[in-house]
Design goal:
By secondary structure, the chain is α/β, with parallel strands linked by helices. It has 3 domains: 100 residues, Conserved hypothetical protein from pyrococcus furiosus pfu- 392566-001, ParB domain (Alpha-Beta Complex); 50 residues, no CATH class; 94 residues, no CATH class. Helices cover 53% and strands 14% of the residues. The strands form 2 sheets. A 5-stranded mixed beta sheet has the order 1-5-3-4-2, with helices on both faces. A hairpin with a 2-residue loop joins β6 and β7. The radius of gyration is 31 Å and the shape is elongated. The N terminus and C terminus are likely disordered.
């Protein structure tokens, strides 16, 4: 039975190669592998063997003792990793002529896309590599992987997002659908980061995220029409820097309110500690006044006017310096 199987493999151009002689594909676009799925594949291979051969290219190197041979993987990264986990000594492979670098990347990319093994960020980076390295156009990349030009273009837009959001997408904290409303805020990084955190903490759906993004656009339009006081805007920025979160100030005549945002109990506790430190610093400044002869200082003797008691924006901002 084994001889018949070996003969069939030989006729189909399949060979058995030692695992230690196979090197990974340097153009493999996939960087992250699900450990649980990999362990499951390893157990399956341990019981039933590698059912689909890997694809490799053969390389010869001259050494002092003669010619050495090794193989470079073109397709089958997960099967190779799982075979090593299963402690296999040999795996079935199909040997192809040495392909170009472009073909290596294309084959690895196509295999992963067909199996849906790439996360959106890995896919976008692979598209970018094809375009930058081989001067391909978006529709040419699409034709090679069986996708539309729009699919390629929209995928590439993911790379416009900050690294933090790209990492969250790779880890599954948000979905590819969430990137659309996030990209709508590309020119407003503070609101983009805010929406990203809201999606995670509130488990927002794509539709809810889009509604939030549209509301920000409307709010920005209204603010632009209202022409807010630049001094208030500056004070908002200083408070935001001091507290490490977004702060907004709304005025209604002589009254108004200050809104301080947080996204978890931990952030709330951190904010309270920062405010406590600010107040403690202010109290220290007040206690130091005791050393001054109040009777000889008109500003502290009660003779000053109400206008003199009004703190300037600079004075207030100093109180919030961490």
């Amino acid at each position: 039975m084994d001889n018949e199987f070996a003969s069939l493999k030989k006729e189909n151009g399949v060979f058995w190669i030692e695992v230690e002689k196979i090197r990974s594909n340097p153009f493999q676009p996939r960087r992250e592998f699900d450990e649980k799925k990999l362990a499951g594949l390893s157990e399956s291979i341990r019981q039933y063997g590698v059912l689909q051969p890997l694809v490799v290219s053969r390389k010869e190197y001259e050494t002092e003792t003669g010619v050495d041979v090794e193989y470079e993987l073109i397709a089958g990264e997960r099967r190779l990793m799982a075979s090593k986990m299963a402690s296999l000594r040999q795996v079935p492979v199909i040997i192809r002529e040495e392909p170009t670098e472009q073909v290596k990347l294309e084959l690895a990319l196509i295999e992963n896309i067909q199996r849906e093994d790439l996360n959106p960020v890995e896919r976008a980076r692979a598209f970018r590599q094809l375009i930058d390295s081989f001067k391909l156009k978006h529709h040419e990349v699409g034709s090679k992987i069986g996708k539309s030009r729009e699919f390629v273009t929209n995928t590439l837009r993911i790379l416009l997002l900050p690294e933090e959001i790209q990492d969250g997408l790779s880890k599954g904290l948000i979905t590819e659908g969430h990137t659309r409303p996030l990209l709508m805020l590309i020119k407003n990084p503070d609101q983009q980061t805010l929406l990203y955190k809201e999606i995670i903490y509130k488990q927002m759906t794509v539709r809810e995220a889009e509604k939030f993004s549209r509301s920000i656009a409307v709010s920005r339009s209204r603010k632009a029409e209202a022409l807010p006081n630049p001094e208030i805007r500056l004070f908002e920025e200083k408070l935001s820097d001091a507290l490490g979160t977004r702060v907004s100030i709304e005025k209604n005549g002589e009254k108004g309110k200050i809104s301080i945002e947080f996204f978890s109990d931990e952030e709330l506790n951190a904010l309270l500690n920062r405010i406590h430190d600010i107040c403690a610093k202010k109290e220290e400044n007040i206690e130091s006044v005791d050393e001054i002869d109040i009777g000889q200082n008109s500003e502290l003797s009660g003779e000053n006017t109400p206008q003199d008691n009004i703190q300037t924006e600079e004075d207030l901002s100093e109180n919030f310096t961490i």
